[in-house]
Amino acid sequence: MERPGVLRWFGYAVGLRLPSRYADWVLHDATSKHWRARYVLERSTGIVPLCLVWLLLPGPLGLRLSLVLMAALVAYFYSCAYMEESIEHRLGKHGFPHGTGRRLRAEAAEAAHAEATARYIARYRAHPEG
TM spans, by residue (predicted)? Predict the structure, then answer.
């Protein structure tokens, strides 16, 4: 799986499409165990610079900090509220059928649940042979 370089990653984080050779990485990015954290980090590439600019505006520091806090809260709220839809749109831009991310994440969760259930049964429900 080929990973994009820093500049390509920044472009990807702000919504640009990566070349097709990164398709496996894009799928991994959208379906890995930590896909939510990765998504929030990617959204931060657009939110943090704006907050830094707002800190430089003239006015009392308390007012500027309040502006930054409220703007960041609203931006992260809406980014996270539409996280799954955004990820599905991103996968679609990279050539994957709609619903691929949800399906793969559901399959992984189901497999993890089955594995945990099997461990539980083996540990607590197994009858000793005797």
Answer: 40-57, 63-83
Specify the pTM: 0.79
Q: Kindly list the domain boundaries of the chain, sorted by start residue.
A: 6-125
Compute φ and ψ for 2, nearest 5 degrees: -90, 130
Tens of pLDDT along 62-103?
Answer: 999 999 999 999 999 999 999 999 999 999 999 999 999 999
The CB density around residue 64, as the number of other CB atoms within 10 Å, is: 16
Number of residues that make up the chain: 130
What DSSP line would sit under the chain, residue for residue?
-PPP-HHHHHHHHTTPPPPGGGHHHHHHHHHSTTHHHHHHHHHHHHHHHHHHHHHTSSS-HHHHHHHHHHHHHHHHHHHHHTHHHHHHHHHHHTTPPTTHHHHHHHHHHHHHHHHHHHHHIIIIIPPPP-
Locus of tokens 């998504």 = 39
